[in-house]
Design goal:
11 helices; homodimer; 12 strands; Rossmann fold; DNA-binding
Chain lengths: 338, 338
Amino acid sequence: MAATLHDVANLAGVSIKTVSNVVNDYPHIRPETRQKVQAAIDELGYQPNLSARSLRSGRSGVIGLVLPELSLSYFAELADAVIANAEKQGVVVLIEQTGADRDREIAVLSSPRMRLTDGLIFSPLGMSQDDVGLLEVDFPMVLLGERIFGGPVDHVTMRNVEAAQAATRFLIDSGRRRIAVIGAHEGEVVGSAALRLRGYRDALQAAGIPYDPALVSHTTLWHRANGAASMRELIDGGVQFDAVFGLNDALTLGALRVLQEKGMRVPDDVAVMGFDNIDEAQYTVPSLSTIDPGREQIAERAVSLLVQRIREQARPSAPQEVLIDFSVVPRESAPARA
Amino acid sequence: MAATLHDVANLAGVSIKTVSNVVNDYPHIRPETRQKVQAAIDELGYQPNLSARSLRSGRSGVIGLVLPELSLSYFAELADAVIANAEKQGVVVLIEQTGADRDREIAVLSSPRMRLTDGLIFSPLGMSQDDVGLLEVDFPMVLLGERIFGGPVDHVTMRNVEAAQAATRFLIDSGRRRIAVIGAHEGEVVGSAALRLRGYRDALQAAGIPYDPALVSHTTLWHRANGAASMRELIDGGVQFDAVFGLNDALTLGALRVLQEKGMRVPDDVAVMGFDNIDEAQYTVPSLSTIDPGREQIAERAVSLLVQRIREQARPSAPQEVLIDFSVVPRESAPARA
DNA sequence: CCCCTAGACTACAACGTTGTACTGCACCGC
DNA sequence: GCGGTGCAGTACAACGTTGTAGTCTAGGGG
């Protein structure tokens, strides 16, 4: 049976509240009392009961992280960074997966399963701008990603349009003219796919290159398998291109694999550029040029914003929109100059 | 302000306990009472307070998953599977990372941060057989991995020796004779590295091939970067080999990359075999032959064992050792016959 | 010498649930 | 008509903590 404040109080010969005060570093305690209590705590191996503390204080010290899937390297690395930052702030992380399914994302927001968290870091992929109203929740929340903008909550995201534009310009600057895109989402207006596609088009336009829809391949999921399939379709469809811009790294690596299966040389015949800079991108053959979205900073900002919100819960201030800087990472698959 | 049982009881005109009974599906309730209560619940949007429930019942519905790092694809995919299985069982997962550091692993076992979990799935990499005593904890726990055997808790693991032996035999059968190993741990007796190395040696011996220590490269961490570095050392050291057995996929992919940088053809000059079957292994160039350790089954068994232990906590039965089946997955980097 | 303040500590009542023990009541069999 | 049984519902006391209000003592100022 785990020891309680009661047991410690008995052993130390003080009141239960004094023990509580010692545990919580209340200042007005005589050093000798503190020592006596501490000795009793050590002897009994007392550990505070977090459920009780949480019931009484309304804080559990747990934050929720809601994301599509840990199997997607980007989210795994993001989760890693979130957990590491949470630890620094003294909170612990509960992870829920939604499989990028809109209904499940919405369900999580009102689910009792998440009720014991103090707040949520929420990274939707299925919800869209129309669902912005659903973000009106009565607990602190930080939104990630680019599915929804201008919501009632803090939002940490990156300059998707600019980053995709930079990636595309990078390919153009190295002499490419027919740049295929992998991972577009039909009819999407907002969201990573739409924003990154917009950046691509902006870059083309700026360079005076006409936009050719035949170069743009669509796929809903952003897994390696989808990138591979899209690339097969492009090639088998006889589309000619001298570069590929994959809207995320996983897609791009699937595509990279197929390019080589089909006997195309990378980067000689086709330059390849991804987006996310997952760890894996450094070790593929050829290594993958990509966009570094500042994942570590995203995690750091998201956690500290959330923790701050939880602390100030009484007097909420206006929601913040935080934009994280990106950078272009040139590697072998698309060297700086052709 | 969130509604409580009290509010619902008032609105429905019944006692608070009756509401509790409705929420908990207590059988002896008149249908009309149930309906009345349900209506009140819906109207107020009542959600049970999990801290209170947990304080009263001693169960939080949260399990902890302790692993080295989510950035390691194997653990990310494992976590994915654990969370998915936990959801099926109606529990939620809190993840803690230890960075494979022994001290942090030990700390987690007695940390109050984990105090609100009902039990732990614990996957150590830093602790060793000598630490077996530390697994004597007063909460349900399922151990994963191959650092510690014969402990006082349930253990889900795989046949490492046999799997590594199968992998090595596979290479031998395809005509390879000088098989390098990447990722060995100096002086280790138990643990993935030691067990897999033992399987390697067993297979060599069975085939009458002498063991050559020069072929075995050591590295503590199992990241892509370490695999790459080891491979560079081997090659630069002038060691001759016609196959590589990487003790996990990440290492192996790092090595695969360096092999190709150095102009060696895979599998023509060097056959390459990994271990873990992470998703990525299908899409590399060449695709990676590897061992599938049955990750999904490991997760499924671990979660259901833990949930079962939590339920039966009163009368604990003897700890179980569960061995999961593996399979050899031949791909391009090491085809079935040379 | 008395009042006031601050420090060190304590008693008590919550927080929102659920387990236990209980009260009625209707129905059954003899 | 009486005791037993099973159903429907309730009252009350926990679970372990912390916030609030309080007591008591010592010390300082007037």
